[in-house]
Specification:
The protein is 31% helix and 27% strand. By secondary structure, it is α/β, with parallel strands linked by helices. The chain has one domain: 3-Layer(aba) Sandwich (Rossmann fold). This is KANL3/Tex30 alpha/beta hydrolase-like domain-containing protein.
Length: 257
């Protein structure tokens, strides 16, 4: 695959090799591709963040809808985790620009600030005239996305269209009493949760009790017997990720149509 690297010095074109997990995720995302949209380029970008930069990949379809999806990873890993690559490829194949980025800090406040920088990067882009964006993430990444969405809602910022929480870490393992719901209860934008019924960091009954208190329109899709990593004994990861991807795309379409 040809990647375009973007830096302050201009453009450099080069062939890049991916590890097996990335190639596998690419194959997963090829299922059910909308032939009206084809991935034409992936641009590696450096997003300014204070005195630093955030590494990101911008996946662009040949025909771009006026909406983008931002994705980031959990407490471990990076933007190349199979969950994010698979979802980004799938959404791009249906016309959505996708940006996934890496921020390896374990400090949720720092990660929230980093996420804000990514949002502003897309908002100010002259290359892509976007009507709005969807914020998403896996595990800790979804916590950062949730915090940014809450703040945007308080500021009546209509640029953010909705929130996608993949394996939202509602609590630490076996510590259901210490619930991370403080941002969820104040969000007004639409929210999609995709979690496993066996997620050790998101008790099913507890999440269902919390969402009825939320102000936001919301939807939960449960992956039967999936743990926090979305793994299910007896099912391939390809099959599970396709289920996740289909749910996310369907929900986004409900919001924008």
């Amino acid at each position: 695959m040809l990647l375009r690297f973007l830096s302050s010095r201009g453009f450099i074109f080069t062939d890049c090799c991916f590890d097996r997990s990335v190639k596998s995720a690419n194959r997963r995302a090829s299922t059910s591709t909308d032939r009206r949209f084809l991935l034409t380029e992936e641009t590696i970008v450096k997003i300014p963040f204070g005195s630093k930069v955030l590494d990101a990949v911008l996946s662009v379809p040949d025909k771009i809808l006026p909406y983008a999806v931002v994705l980031t990873h959990g407490a471990s890993g990076d933007m190349n985790c199979c969950h994010l690559i698979s979802l980004a490829k799938y959404l791009v194949s249906h016309g959505f620009l996708c940006l996934r980025f890496t921020c390896k800090s374990l400090n949720i406040i720092y990660r929230t600030k980093a996420y804000k920088a990514v949002v502003e990067y897309l908002r100010s882009s002259d290359a892509y005239k976007l009507s709005g964006i969807f914020l998403g993430g896996r595990s800790m990444g979804s916590r950062a996305a949730t915090s940014v969405t809450r703040q945007a809602d308080q500021d009546n910022d209509s640029f953010i269209q909705g929130l996608i929480c993949l394996s939202y870490p509602l609590h630490r393992p076996k510590l259901q009493a210490k619930c991370r719901d403080e941002d969820l209860l104040f969000i007004k934008s639409p929210v999609l949760f995709v979690s496993g019924t066996a997620d050790e960091m998101c008790d099913q009954r507890l999440l269902e009790d919390i969402v009825v208190k939320m102000k936001a329109p919301m939807k939960i899709h449960w992956i039967e017997k999936a743990n926090h990593s979305m793994a299910v004994r007896g099912r391939t990861m390809d099959d599970i990720l396709l289920e996740v991807n289909v749910q996310v795309l369907s929900w986004i379409r409900e919001i924008i149509e």
